[in-house]
Amino acid sequence: MTETANPTAAGAKSAGKGLKIERIFSTEGVHPYDELTWERRDVVQTNWKTGETVFEQRGVEFPDFWSVNASTIVTTKYFRGAVGTPERETGLKQLIDRVVGKYVEAGIANGYFDTDADAEVFEHELTWLLAHQYFSFNSPVWFNVGTQSPQQVSACFILSVDDSMDSILNWYKEEGFIFKGGSGAGLNLSRIRSSKELLSSGGTASGPVSFMRGADASAGTIKSGGATRRAAKMVVLDVDHPDIEEFVETKWREEDKIRALRDAGFDMDLGGKDITSVQYQNANNSVRVTDEFMRAVEDGTEFGLRARKTGEVIETVDARTLFRKISEAAWACADPGLQYDDTINDWHTNPETGRITASNPCSEYMSLDNSSCNLASLNLLKFLKDDDTFDAELFTKAVELIITAMDISICFADFPTEPIGETTRDYRQLGIGYANLGALLMAMGLGYDSDGGRAMAATITSLMTGTSYRRSAELAAIVGPYAGYARNAEAHNRVMRKHQAANDTVRPLHVADTEVHKAATKEWAQVVELGKVNGFRNAQASVLAPTGTIGFMMDCDTTGIEPDFSLVKFKKLVGGGSMQIVNQTIPRALKKLGYDEEKIEAIVAYIAEHGHVVDAPGLKTEHYEVFDTAMGERALKPMGHVKMMAACQPFLSGAISKTVNLPETATVEEIEDIYLQSWKLGLKATAVYRDNCKVGQPLADGGGKAKKDAADAEAAEVVEKVVEKVVYAPTRKRLPKARRSLTTSFTVGGAEGYMTSGAHEDGSLGEIFLKLGKQGSTLAGVMDAFSIAVSIGLQYGVPLETYVSKFTNLRFEPAGLTDDPDVRMSQSIMDYIFRRLALDYLSFEERSMLGIYSAEERQRHLETGSYEPIEETGSAAELVEKPTASAPVVEAATVVEEAVHGRHETSDADEDPLAGAPKVEPKVAHTSAELLEQITGHAVDSPLCMTCGTKMRPAGSCYVCEGCGSTSGCS
């Protein structure tokens, strides 16, 4: 696909003048670093589950206003050099200098700057913006630029595969190299003949789905070979492919298999040891639909599936039936999404070179086959002025500078394959975007799902892309248009006029968006005029990416185009520890809406306790919408997400990485409507996710509140029916043939014994076996008989609490000290056994009613005056699945006191005011997702991070970990 490039575009020194760079952000005569206050920090990262230290670097240097989370993630992810060696980077200055230095060097070598002074201003401006968190390049830039590694700057790739075995095997190889480097790729398999067509040899073709199996296995293998996140890939199939139904059903069928295996006891969570036994789990699937198909769905007519070689219709299907099947599959397992082919190609600037057939894994980059895109995102909240209006002028200047730097990077970038390198150098696709839109709108007092919010987002997006293309046209005059421009000039300029026309249809509603819209209108007028004369340096300019890790680098509250995740955040503190804070955008929004300090303080306090604004004291109901979030009590309606995407889509070269989240109760019809409305509103792609539709998404504490309420209601109904129909009679609940058990060795007063306890599937105690004395002795026989009697009683429904209350505190020999740190003194073997069973199988609340506490709880009482647990004690069944370390030994003074006075903690239950009325604290949160679950009682349906084990949160169509910055996507 190599085009004939002019000498300047190929890298020669420009014959004309270069860019004059205006100093806007930095101060003349002062280096950007000298304007900041710097401090040294220790970055120590642990896996919270195991306590293992997974990273440690002390004394790293960052500006004082950078959060602990930002400095931690940048240190662990982006600093180069082996830890503990002189080559290791030790501060943000080194990181920024490494990257910016390479950009300036390449800019000078390729004739971008008019003078050396302009190059220096460019360096200072870029450094200032990065250090102040105004924007960030995508992760590969920080990984690679300025190092000895290949200078890969792109996170997004689109591959190509043809109907030949050589091409298919080459696809496997190219995809493997991209995954190895930590990036992702997408491709369209529609050129491969279907399983309903013949080969030249006369046999039947395998079809694309069969080859997907091999690629999926390859992706899973490369991931398991050392990557810390799953391989990110997108597989697309055209809706008129004869194998489309098989493609639609692939992940749907596998999800049913996952459920069956899970119910049989296999570990099928994401990252579980048995999940590799199912297929197609390493890719996102999308169906490429046409306007013809969507109109057939509306009209209820038939639609033809076409042979790949001849294009003839070989089968007809009912369009509505196929559309329904697509929606049913998405309802069941979140795949496939839809990509709207005609819309995508109607906004394509290079149709003479080839059609756009696929996207990257997150669906924001859509361009030619064998191409790549390097991304950068701006932090929108940085451009909010003190009067709560958006600074369009400053934003424009930042976009000019950033888009220039992004184009320079293509001059020195390396690529994973030569075809990708050729296409990228010839078309120079860029992907400028933004983060923090949700926080910006809230701070301005605008609801995310409101006309005002959408108008503001649309004008900002229009201004960003308009400025980018205007600068691209200016660059074309200096260093030449992209090599493929000449053959696509008419089409490219047509798309620029489409953007301009879309801008004209935006209707601003406030003073703030009116000013931004005026600036955008001015930019598009220049784009159209300059483009006619100069052409353009870049075939594409903008996308809206997930901004996962780089969003943390910029300390953004919200990612990409997303609304705020929740109103209460989890924040790490300098020196260790963390705290729960209310989103700091909220007080600013309340002030903007006219509330005084007293009311603001009361509303913020209410949000801190409840996690939402419903019934907040003094807050007007008409202002609730401003504080709607992605999750929680006031979660946005699905169409609110779709409408925001539709408002911004006409002003993007590419598309938007975003998933439309639906509640678990959503219907197939709702998904059909979202897909249909997305097409009508002009989106390029749509993906949906219904809560709890996937087994392989580990949840905290089971399902959400809705699921629990439904289960409680169902249980109550069953109980009522049973009471009406039968008189109570005891029924024995036998244990399954294979059951979980826990064996405990113990010593009481010098006498040794063993206890084995078996549990039902729900974790409740069902049997015990006690071994004391020699086999055949009287004591052994009595213990066997006692064990059988207690076990039968348990199986007939006698509560364990009853046994514990009857047998604890019984006094007889042997008695005295034990070897169990949780039960240091025992008055008899029976006293010990039932205290141990209580600790293993009863909840904290049940035990505290009986005055039984673990060593850890008693230690906490000594230190804080409270037995309240930080984390709910697990059942014995859970302990069998995941053994834990022994509880800490109680302080020596406590043991001595017990031994001398014959006193132990559990004998004081009646005197302890806390006994019988414990206050149980929820589990410790490690991320905002877990904190939201803790406050609201609703489960957040997200995977656990494979690096540090914390619950991730949504970021576009991907997930991001607040603990370590890992993402599930390609950015």
From TrEMBL:
The protein's annotated catalytic reaction(s) are: a 2'-deoxyribonucleoside 5'-diphosphate + [thioredoxin]-disulfide + H2O = a ribonucleoside 5'-diphosphate + [thioredoxin]-dithiol
GO BP terms: DNA biosynthetic process
- Give the cofactors, semicolon-separated: adenosylcob(III)alamin
InterPro entries the UniProt entry points to: RdRp_reductase_class-2 (IPR050862), RNR_2_N (IPR013678), RNR_lg_C (IPR000788), RNR_NrdJ/NrdZ (IPR013344), TSCPD_dom (IPR024434)
- TSCPD domain residues are 736-840
Q: Top enzyme class of this protein?
A: oxidoreductase
Offer an example of a GO molecular function term for this protein: ribonucleoside-diphosphate reductase activity, thioredoxin disulfide as acceptor
What is the residue range of the signal peptide feature?
none
Write down the EC number: 1.17.4.1
Keywords for the protein's UniProt record, in alphabetical order: Cobalamin, Cobalt, Disulfide bond, DNA synthesis, Nucleotide-binding, Oxidoreductase
Q: Which NCBIfam families match?
A: NrdJ_Z (TIGR02504), PRK06556.1 (NF005122)
Known function: Catalyzes the reduction of ribonucleotides to deoxyribonucleotides. May function to provide a pool of deoxyribonucleotide precursors for DNA repair during oxygen limitation and/or for immediate growth after restoration of oxygen.
The entry's protein name is Vitamin B12-dependent ribonucleotide reductase
